[in-house]
Amino acid sequence: MPHTQPLFLARRSYRRRRMMDAVRLLPGFGAVLIMLPLLWRTAETPEPDTAEGLVYLFAVWVLLIAAAFALSRGLAPALLVPEEPVSPEAGEPGENSGEAG
Amino acid sequence: MPFNVLVAVSLLYVGLLFGVAFVAERRARGGSAVWLRTPLVYTLSLSIYCTAWTFYGAVGYAARSGLEFLTIYLGPTLVFVGWWWILRKLVRIGRAQRVTSIADLISSRYGKSNFLGVVVTVMAVLAATPYIALQLQSVTLSFGVFASDTPEGWALPDQGATALWVAAGLALFTILFGTRNLDANERHHGIVMAIAVEAVVKLIALLAVGIFVVWGVAGGVADILARIGASPIADWPLKPGRWAGLTFVSAAAILTLPRMFQVMVVENADERHVATASWAFPLYLMLMSLFVVPIAVVGLGIMPLGSNPDLFVLTIPLSQGAGKLALLAFLGGFSSATSMVIVAAIALSTMVSNHIVTPLWLALRVGSARAPGDVRGLVLMSRRLSIGAVLALGYTYYHLSGGSAALAAIGLISFVGVAQVLPAMVGGIYWRGATHIGAALGLITGFSIWLYCLFLPSFGEGGLISARVMADGLFGIYWLRPHALFGITGLDPLLHALLWSMLLNTAAFLIGSLASFPGPMERLQGVAFVNIFDQTSGPGGWARSAAEAEDLLSMSQRILGPEEAQRFFQAQAAAQGKLGYLPDPTPDFIARLERQLAGSVGAATAHAMISQLSGGATVSVQDLIAVAGEAQQIKEYSAQLEAKSEELARTARALREANDKLTGLSVQKDAFLSQISHELRTPMTSIRAFSEILMETDLPDEMRSKYAGIIHDETRRLTRLLDDLLDLSVLENRKVQLTIGVANLHDIITKAVTSASNTRPERVFVVQRDASAEHMPVFTDTDRLLQVFINLVSNARKYCDAERAVLRIEVKKRGGFVEVDFIDNGAGIPKTSQALIFEKFARLTDTSHAGGAGLGLAICREIMANLGGSIDYIPGQGGAAFRVRLPLKRSG
Question: How far is the alpha carbon of A47 from chain B, nearest alpha carbon, in Å?
Answer without folding.
Answer: 7
